[in-house]
Amino acid sequence: MTSLDKNHWFTEISDRDGSAFSLRINKLLEEKQSPFQHVAMYETTDFGNLMIIDGCTMVSTRENFFYHEMIAHPALFSHPNPKNVVIIGGGDCGTLREVLKHDSVESVTQIDIDQVVTEMSLKYFPELCTSNQDPRATLLFDDGIKYMREAAPESIDVVIVDGTDPVGPGEGLFNHAFYQSCLKALRPGGVLVQQSESPLMHMPLLLEMRGAMKEVGFGALQTLPFPQPIYPSGLWSVTLARKGMGFDGFRACDPQALQTEYYTPGIHQGALSEPPFMARAFAGE
Ligand code: SAM
């Protein structure tokens, strides 16, 4: 049996969940304390490179496709013609790469507060950064909360909130004021999508997010679960909210043309079928 000694294993201890998750590592590649957070990169034995922010697992080479595809494609295919997209956070650039697979998209502005995350991703996840030079992409390093507060009304089709957990600089991405800014900046029929933590471990937070989205005036919500092997519980979710109208299905795509690893129209349809434990929790809203 191998012991989980610090030199060979990275362990994320999740106090709030009473759980821990470990990956075996070869070595620490680099670590930096930015003005906003501590960013570390490890080489693992089986998951490729691994990015850690403030002690929490963020992205690994092997499994990041689940998250990046599910935060991008269901929202974009739920909009009839998404042209202008904003990504808040997303500094590893994996979500940006997925968004730019959509031909309808004319512009994507990504606003991550921390340039160090993107610098590290360019170095250790170059495959996630292959679309950074796309002429439709603009990368800004600033506070996404401020950016959305100042965004022109009715100027955006899809807002993607690919942020950290609701602690540190990501805290203000989960409250009424932020959702109000998003609602104002979206065109009618526009879609907001946000990573919404684990439906198994963090249901109170998920209900709080959904409540705040509804209270500011989003018409319809969808929470889609998906596997997320390196996050607490292994089950994660995104929540979509639509401005001014309900969801009316989604456009089907050819997954081979889109070159996805996980997303297909069938997976999208399946994720819309709420498991009873989630449906029961949402019924009480
Ligand atoms: N995409 C990753 C994954 O697979 O889970 C995790 C997300 S990581 C890229 C979250 C990003 O949100 C970090 O780069 C962090 O700097 C950024 N962030 C946190 N608070 C922010 C804020 N207020 N404005 C903009 N970006 C923020």
TrEMBL record:
Quaternary structure note: Homodimer or homotetramer.
UniProt keyword Transferase present: yes
Binding annotation for S-methyl-5'-thioadenosine: Q37, D112, D143, G144, P169
Biological role: Catalyzes the irreversible transfer of a propylamine group from the amino donor S-adenosylmethioninamine (decarboxy-AdoMet) to putrescine (1,4-diaminobutane) to yield spermidine.
PROSITE patterns named in the record: PABS_1, PABS_2
Classification via Gene3D superfamilies: Spermidine synthase, tetramerisation domain, Vaccinia Virus protein VP39
Organism: Pseudoalteromonas qingdaonensis
PANTHER family: SPERMIDINE SYNTHASE (PTHR11558:SF11), SPERMIDINE/SPERMINE SYNTHASE (PTHR11558)
Documented EC number(s): 2.5.1.16
Molecular function GO labels: spermidine synthase activity
Domain PABS: start-end pairs: 7-243
Enzyme class: transferase
Lineage: Bacteria, Pseudomonadati, Pseudomonadota, Gammaproteobacteria, Alteromonadales
Family: Belongs to the spermidine/spermine synthase family.
Residues the record marks as active site: D162 (proton acceptor)
Catalytic activity field: S-adenosyl 3-(methylsulfanyl)propylamine + putrescine = S-methyl-5'-thioadenosine + spermidine + H(+)
Annotated spermidine binding sites: H68, D92
The protein, known as: Polyamine aminopropyltransferase
